[in-house]
Amino acid sequence: MSQPNYSGTFHLAEQDNMDSYLAALDINFALRKIVCLLKPTKEISHDPATGTMKIRTVTTLKNFNMDFTIGKEFTEDLGPVDGRTCQTTVSWEGDKLVCVQRGEKDGRGWTHWLEGDKLHLEMRVQGVVAKQVFKRKIEDM
């Protein structure tokens, strides 16, 4: 089975349990409330031939860039998110991208998958799960 190409621009359409997820990351109350109001955009550049991927999360507060090669572990700087670094590996599980982040917080990681024009994101840390759904920008379809 060939892997899907995740390239495109996606706008947040819905989210669930974000405050609890951020609390599990030790994000302070005021910042959690602000982050929960943000409507991030994900700009993804994916080269299925090489496995390289760039995910840029853009908000009015902070932007976060993640560049990696699928299947290769790297040191991820999560400074813009929660001030930590971790060892990260993003791999395919079927047609889903699954990220494992080893560091100070147990069970940390995320899963991305596509369903039609929607990009799903499930984020996990210490047994807490938050979900976001992004809708693909029309011009990218």
From TrEMBL:
Q: Which Pfam family is one of those matched by this entry?
A: Lipocalin
**Keyword Transmembrane helix tagged:** no
Q: Which SUPFAM superfamilies match?
A: Lipocalins
Name the Gene3D superfamilies on file: 2.40.128.20
List the InterPro entries hit by this protein, alphabetically. Calycin, Fatty_acid-bd, ILBP, Lipocln_cytosolic_FA-bd_dom
Q: Where, if anywhere, are coiled coils annotated? A: none
Q: Per the database record, which ranges form the Lipocalin/cytosolic fatty-acid binding domain?
A: 7-135
Task: Quote one Gene Ontology molecular function term.
Answer: retinal binding
Q: Which UniProt keywords apply?
A: Retinol-binding, Vitamin A
The role this protein plays is: Cytosolic CRABPs may regulate the access of retinoic acid to the nuclear retinoic acid receptors.
Family under the similarity heading = Belongs to the calycin superfamily. Fatty-acid binding protein (FABP) family.
Q: What is this protein called?
A: Cellular retinoic acid-binding protein 1
- Tell me what organism the protein belongs to: Seriola lalandi dorsalis
**From which lineage does this chain's organism come?**
Eukaryota, Metazoa, Chordata, Craniata, Vertebrata
